[in-house]
What does this fold into?
Amino acid sequence: MSLAIQRGFWTENSHCTPKTMMKFCDFLKSNEGSKILAGFHKKAKLHKKAKLYGLDVADLTDVSMLKQQLLELAASREEEAESGC
It folds into this structure.
C-alpha cells in the first residue's frame, strides 16, 4: 500500500478504513482496476519518454505516428518493387 501512496495511486488515505482499503485492493485486482493501472503506467512512461527527448506528450505521439506512417510507406514501396509495378 505504501508503494501505491508513494507513486500517487492512493492520495485520499487519511480517511481510509481497513474495509475501504480492502475494497480498493479488490478493485485493483479486478479487470477494470488492472486496465486503469495499466493506463496510469502507460501515461507515466509517455511523460518520462517525452521529458527525456525534451518534448511534450502530444509532440511525442505525433512523432511516433509519423514514424509508423513512414514504416508503412517503406513497406508498401518495397512490396511494389518486388511485384514489379
Remarks:
- The mean pLDDT is 84.
- The CA atoms of residues 61 and 67 lie 10 Å apart.
